DNA sequence: CATTTTGAACCGTCAGAGTC
DNA sequence: GACTCTGACGGTTCAAAATG
C-alpha cells in the first residue's frame, strides 16, 4: 500500500527532559547529573548506616541537591528504584541532563540579544552600539559591559585598569563579584550586603528566564505561560537567582561559548560562589530578607501570608484551571 | 470562529576542542 | 587526520491567549 507522506510520529520525548530543564534552572545548573544520582543512591543504600560525620560537607551538600531532585521530579524515585541495570539509570540521568543543558543553551541564546535592550537607555542610543547576535566587543572591550562586569572595589574609571582588563593582563576570577550584582551598581565597602543581588539587571534576567521575556519591562502581557508557571514555581530559589546572575554575567561577557570549566569566564565558580553564600547558615538572616525581597519582586501575588505550595495544592490549582 | 501574538520546545547543521 | 562531543545558531513547531 501507498504510504502517504511521512506520518507525524508522536514519539513524545521523555518527561524527564522537561523536568530536567527546571532542575537546571532552579535547583542546580552545573553538575554531572549521572554522578549526582549514583552517589545519591549509594548514600541512600549501602552508606545509610554511616554516621553523619562520615560524610564531607561537600557530600552532604550534594546529597541535599539529590533529595531536591527526587522531590522536584515526580516519578523519578520510582523509576530509579525499579531500574535493573546501571545502563537504565544512566539513561534516566541522560534525559535529565539533556533537559538541563538545552534549557541553559536556550537561555544563553535568548539573553544574548535581550541583554542589549537592558543596557540601552529608554531614551534611544547606546554608544558605542552593541551587536545583538555577536559577542565580540562586549566584556571589557566595551565601556558599558565592562563597567558592569568590573569587580566591586575595582575602579573602572581608572584608565590603566581598564586597559589591563581589556588585554587580559588583569583577569577576574569567578568569586570576584562584578558590580552589576549590586543595587544601583554601587558597592559599599563598610556594608558588603548592602544592595547585593538587588540589582535591576539580575531581576530582569530572572524575569526573562522564569516569568517570560516580555514581562521584563512590560506588565506581563502573558499569552503563553512562562517557565515558572509551567513548572509550578511560586517562590524564587537561591539557585534560580544564582542561575540568572550567571546567565546575565555570561551575556555581558565577550565569550561566545558557555563552558563551565573554562578559566577565563569562570562561570562555574561564579555560580557556586553565589550559591555558597546563600546557603551559609551564618548569613541566614540576610538571606531570608533577600529571598523575601525577591519573592515580592517576582511573585507579588504569592508574597507574604501565602502558605508554602505543596504538591497537592499545586495539583488542585491545576485541576481548578481546567 | 479565524487570525495574530507570544514564548517554550525542538530540529538540523555547524564549528571548536579534545581524543585516538 | 578521522572521530566524537558539546554548545551555538537559525529556523521551525506547537499551544495558549488575545484580538478581530
UniProtKB/TrEMBL annotation:
InterPro entries given in the database record: DUF6698
Top-level taxon of the source organism: Eukaryota
Matches recorded under Pfam families: DUF6698
Protein name per Swiss-Prot or TrEMBL: Uncharacterized protein
Record organism: Hypholoma sublateritium (strain FD-334 SS-4)
Amino acid at each position: 500500500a501507498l504510504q502517504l507522506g511521512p506520518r507525524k510520529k508522536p514519539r513524545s520525548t521523555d518527561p524527564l527532559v522537561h523536568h530536567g530543564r527546571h532542575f537546571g534552572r532552579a535547583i542546580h545548573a552545573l553538575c554531572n547529573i549521572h554522578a549526582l544520582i549514583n552517589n545519591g543512591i549509594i548514600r541512600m543504600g549501602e552508606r545509610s548506616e554511616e554516621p553523619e560525620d562520615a560524610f564531607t560537607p561537600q557530600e552532604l551538600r550534594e546529597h541535599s541537591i539529590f533529595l531536591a531532585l527526587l522531590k522536584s521530579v515526580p516519578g523519578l524515585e520510582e523509576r530509579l528504584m525499579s531500574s535493573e541495570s546501571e545502563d537504565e539509570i544512566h539513561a534516566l540521568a541522560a534525559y535529565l541532563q539533556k533537559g538541563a543543558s538545552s534549557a541553559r543553551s536556550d537561555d544563553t541564546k535568548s539573553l544574548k540579544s535581550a541583554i542589549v535592550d537592558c543596557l540601552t537607555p529608554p531614551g534611544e542610543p547606546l554608544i558605542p552600539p552593541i551587536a545583538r547576535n555577536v559577542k565580540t566587543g562586549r566584556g571589557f572591550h566595551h565601556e558599558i559591559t565592562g563597567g558592569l562586569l568590573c569587580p566591586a572595589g575595582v575602579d573602572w574609571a581608572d584608565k590603566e585598569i581598564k586597559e589591563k582588563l581589556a588585554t587580559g593582563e588583569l583577569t577576574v576570577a569567578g568569586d570576584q563579584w562584578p558590580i552589576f550584582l549590586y543595587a544601583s551598581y554601587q558597592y559599599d565597602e563598610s556594608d558588603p550586603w548592602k544592595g547585593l543581588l538587588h540589582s535591576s539587571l539580575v531581576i530582569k534576567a530572572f524575569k526573562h528566564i522564569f516569568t517570560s521575556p516580555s514581562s521584563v519591562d512590560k506588565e506581563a502581557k502573558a499569552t503563553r505561560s512562562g517557565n515558572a508557571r509551567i513548572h509550578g514555581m511560586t517562590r524564587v530559589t537561591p539557585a534560580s537567582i544564582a542561575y540568572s546572575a550567571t546567565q546575565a554575567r555570561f551575556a555581558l561577557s565577550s565569550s561566545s561559548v558557555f563552558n563551565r570549566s573554562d578559566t577565563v569566564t569562570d562561570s562555574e565558580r561564579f555560580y557556586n560562589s553565589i550559591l555558597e553564600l546563600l546557603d551559609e547558615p551564618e548569613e541566614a538572616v540576610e538571606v531570608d530578607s533577600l529571598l523575601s525581597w525577591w519573592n515580592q519582586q517576582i511573585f507579588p501575588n504569592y508574597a507574604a501570608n501565602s502558605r508554602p505550595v505543596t504538591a497537592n495544592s499545586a495539583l488542585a490549582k491545576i485541576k481548578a484551571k481546567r
